[in-house]
Fold this protein.
Amino acid sequence: MAFSNLETSERLQRVLGVLLDGEWHSTLEIMLKADAMAVNTCISELRFNGFDIECRQVGHNRFEYRLNMDKASDNDVVNTVVSSIAVQIMEGAEASQVEVYGRD
């Protein structure tokens, strides 16, 4: 499977920004907050980037996702991106407003 790299993908960074609180988020919530379509694909790509993301079914064809903070990747690039996103979120930026790591 081809997948995007977190370091260069604004889309994945926005989705990760939503998940960084470690709480459960519905597909619709992630779509709206991260301005991302095909949330299941984004989750799969984040998993390929080293993140442990849990999924649970909460209804007929309704799912929620949560980032397992205890098992986050040890990759230095991933940690740098996560730190950058976390700081922006804590400073009040919405997930859809997070600046892309490494861009001018």
